[in-house]
# Entry
Amino acid sequence: MIYKNYMGGVWIESASEKTFESRNPAHSGQVVGEFQDSNESDINQAVTFAKDAFKMWKNTPAPKRAEILFKAAEILIRDKECIAKQMTQEMGKVIAETRGDVQEAIDMAYYAAGEGRRLAGETNPSELKNKWCMTIRQPMGVIGAITPWNFPIAIPAWKAFPALVAGNTMVIKPAEDTPWSVIKLAEVFHEAGLPAGVFNVVTGYGPSAGMPLVQHKDVKMVSFTGSTATGKKVATACAELGKQYSLEMGGKNGIVVMDDADIDLAVEGVAFGAFGTTGQRCTACSRVFVHESIEEEFVEKLKEKAESLYIGDGVNETVQMGPLINEKALIKVDGYVQDAKNRFAHEGPGKLVCGGEMIQEPTDDTYGWFYKPTIFNGVDDNDPLMQEEIFGPVVAVTTFTNTNEAIWLLNNTKYGLSAAVYTSDINFAMTALTEIETGLVYINTSCIGAEVHLPFGGLKGTGNGHRDAGQTMIDNCTEWKVCSIDYSGQVQKAQIDH
# Structure
């Protein structure tokens, strides 16, 4: 099936007259659909629609805007199973996870819509007599969003629902690997009665569609989730144009397992963090720091868990880990693994515990991009396995001797998104909460599992300080305006007449 761009409430072919294919990563010969290979002309058209719709939408009462978003949530609930199955075919993660992806969009729809009656500013005292002050929130205008493939509907929902309830309009460019999910979101909004031009979808590639969206003069703010390399390009372009931007980029997340931890619980948490979504999460666990006294037991149990995982097509309810997103990702992951194997064979330290190779399972004369869950042990904390974002089912393990060393190792990365600690020591747990340099810290659970009512984002090289979701979600897409009314009948001078 050929899918069109959604602009101005209608479905429109790209001006390029070109399309590209999206393939099922579990069966690389299976085409999920053809999508518009859009260019700058398409972006210009979409932004024009969004700009024209903005005046009407911002003047629509926020509770009325929220009613439409509630309807969208109900449609998502109705279509949840269908969307989840199609999403698994589009990006590969197991059906339980894609159901969770849709549920996250539903949760965000309800949560953001609830803000339609709480888009409050503040009333503030004045330092002068007979003067009244307040602050109000106002929408920015057209917001451009560039979204990743690993959460094809959840992350677009994170960006869209808060922006829309606040009165903004939007143009979104989804990842080229997963355009269908955002096209479906547009269908949901259309059915819910969202006015034409308020939400627009333009599919295509980063250089030809994404960057023109970032650089468009009428796009007031850009919200980006993706790789660090692309995020830096977005930041540079926005800075040169003087526009606001929100970045959520890479992660190199670690889990500390203390000697007093529940080892079985820790193994479950590490396995879920490392191999859930085939390791393709910005919050995925790729580093594990284990107290030296429990290293042997922990590594052996983690190996058993990894080797027991049933790998295959995620639409099968019994499958526990799906494929990587595409062939390029498969080659990248295998490159890191093979380099590490060669390096450890000649230099050390470090050794392969399990995995370390591709899986090619013929299915109807084709195969998917599968990789075995891979564990390395005894890895130096400055090794590429410990410092570079691999984005696959690969985890590196090393040991520590004391709590100070554990926290230092955890913080020894340029990223700062997520971390977890397994311990029964409340004193160390509280110390970890304050000393770990990440935006998300978990105690006795895995390092993945964001909830929509909690701010999501990281420190250091992970982002630029903004947060998606949570109580701060509206901050990314609104401007504060200070309003003062002086009824003194004279010109009063703040600070001077104080």
About this structure: The chain has a mean pLDDT of 95. The first helix runs from residue 40 to 58.
